[in-house]
Description:
The chain has 433 residues and is an alpha+beta fold. It contains nine helices and 26 strands. The strands form seven sheets. It has a five-stranded mixed sheet. It is globular.
Amino acid sequence: MNPKQSGRRRFLKGGPLLAAGLxxxxxxxLSGRSQTPEDxxxxxxxxxxxxxxxxxxxxxxxxxxxxxxxxxxxxxxxPMQDQLGIITPVPLHFILDHDRSxxxxxxxxxxxxxxxxxxxxxxxxxxxxxxxxDDLKRLPSVTRFHFLECNANGNPTGPNGEPxxxxxxxxxxxxxxxxxxxxxxxxxxxxxxxxxVQKSATWIEAEGAESEHHTKSIPMQKVMDDxxxxxxxxxxxxxxxxxxxxxxxxxxxxxxxxxxxLRRIKxxxxxxxxxxxxxxxxxxxxxxxxxxxxxxxxxxxVITRPSGGQQLAGAGFYEISGLAWSGGGKVRRVExxxxxxxxxKDAQLQDPIASKSHxxxxxxxxxxxxxxxxxxxxxxxRNMVQPTKEEFANLFKISVDxxxxxxxxxxxxxxxxxxxxxxxxxxxxxxxx
Length: 433
């Protein structure tokens, strides 16, 4: 048998949906960025192959600098529409720092020497501890998949023209303030056990080593559940912008709890009530009251391919792909609609499916070339379901119009994100536009 013919038969037998896509001539190409011509001669890096590697010059997607009301902070959005699997490469991991100079400009990450940096654990303990990075690495460690997410991720409102609700918005614009990594570190309960936490302690106060000493209060119940002091990310040391040499990691909670450049944990019996905890972190409600100490991120999903800014080449087979996650545990189910929300079908969840981690989902789709919208919704292991924007508005007793006209940021916004497919194959953002 001709080996080329044998291979072709195996390819065509890969599944009826794939064959259906080939039946129209070829699988359409989904494009989202320009490509370098294939006939250009390859260029090799001058770096030694034994040094720290570089990606191909043909791969040019990158982080995007924050704009609008977040521009006062140092930060970048993750290009999640270009991500494969669930792990975000560290150079593309989203960044958001609130540390600013006296002139109001973002500071560079602190340059901390791991040989001299120390973590102090004190307060309501019997045996205060001072730990170096080497001390931590001598202790039993764990490695876990976990997502990290800013509480403003997906936020549809905000002044100064942040492109979150623009028709041209990409998945990076709408949901790029989350990333997922494989984190390595020491369980915080182990450290507190060594310090001898007193029974009346109910909170911790964690503090970073940057110039403004970001401080966050976290309830002891969460601390003793699954919090970590991490020093590794995706197989290497955490990088300076991610908290080198060590950071606190609070799985499933909003990003501001994950104190970077960790230098101090004080065990206390009430929240610290620091300046940022009482002024910046609470969310103002329409009735004039505020939501304080918001913690867990709700179930959320977003289709990353096809998504905003991409272009379908024509009718035919496409694999819809995206990411889902929940601060409440594992993703149990993701449903996809390809008819603007009229009907829903289960997507396939790809391994690994870890608690409080991004989960990749895929769904086979035969596009007929007609205008439609595609959507996804996530259900977590506690049966919490990602809401529509109307359901989210009802929960907070506001009108849907408030998302567009309201002057205040809506944190923890996890409403279903649609992508509109035009008859010509363009993919745009119809949410609030």
